[in-house]
Every structure is written in C-alpha cells, then in structure tokens.
Amino acid sequence: MRSWGGILAIVGLGILTGGMLFFGAVMAPLVFTHLPLPVAGAFIRAAFPWYYGFVLASAALAGLGLLLQRKAAAAGPGAVIAVTLWSLLWLLPHMDALKAANNAAGFAFWHNVSVWLNGAELFAALLLLIRAAAVKDRDEARPRRLPQAGIGL
Questions:
Q1: How many CB atoms lie within 10 A of CB 137?
Q2: Among 8, 9, 44, 97, which one is least packed by beta carbons within 10 Å?
Q3: What is the mean pLDDT of residues 144-151?
Q4: How confident is the model at residue 135 (pLDDT cuts 50, 70, 90)?
Q5: pTM
Q6: Hey, is 137 helix, strand or coil?
Q7: Torsion angle of the four alpha carbons 25, 27, 32, 35, in this order, in degrees rounded to the nearest 10
Q8: For residue 136, what pLDDT is reported?
Q9: Which spans in 87-147 are helix H?
Q10: Of all helices (H) and strands (E), which one includes residue 10?
Q11: CA gap 38, 36 in Å, rounded
C-alpha cells in the first residue's frame, strides 16, 4: 500500500500535468479559434493568474508528497514553483506592459520564452508523474525475507 506521501505526490503530479495539458491543448486553442483576436488575447491574459495559481497549488501538493517520502525528486515541483512564481510576478506584468506599448517584437520574444518554460514544466511534471506511478514506495520495493526455519528442530 502506498504511503500518504506517495498518494499526495501522484495526485498532485496528475492534477498538475492534466491541468497544464488542458490549458495548452484545449483552452488556449479554443479561445483563439472562437473569439476575435483582441478579445481572445485579453481573455487569456485574464486567465493566466488563475492558471499560475493552479500550477502553484498542484505543484505544492506534489512537492509535499515527495518531501514526505524524503525523495530528492521534490526538487522538480520546487523548480516548477520557482519558475511559475517568476512568470506570475515578473514575466506576466512585463508582457502586459509590452502589449500595452504595442511592442510586438518584445511581446513575441517573451511569449516564446513563456511557451518554452511552460513546456519544460509540463515535461518535467509528466516525467515525475510516470516515475512516481511506476516506482513503489521505498518500503514496498524492498524484497521481504522469509522467516528462517529452525535447523535441527
């Protein structure tokens, strides 16, 4: 049976990976194909603080689970949290300022950076999820010794 740390890690990583996949593969394309471009851009910019909050919460849950298991892999969700905080507190306002100033080249550059960062975070979360689901807890992975039968009984 898995420990609470193992359960929290798998649930947190599953929620993180699923949410990131949904936003990038379903939500963003749907918004940009069904709304006029100015409305779609404003809508997505308004959604990003919520998205980043979701990423922070689910990565924290995964990180807590990995920490409870005393696994070095907790650095993965820690890195996701750090990059997401930077994106929320610096990158998003910077991109909004570039958009407001009609600096298309600057916005395009930082948008590209944000897409690559998000992709790297998603890839890391997916790898950690696969590893966490495939590896049993430390205590379960150890082979159990059979009791020794007494000799000469």
A1: 17
A2: 97
A3: 61
A4: confident
A5: 0.83
A6: coil
A7: 160
A8: 64
A9: 92-100, 104-134, 138-141
A10: helix 4-22
A11: 6
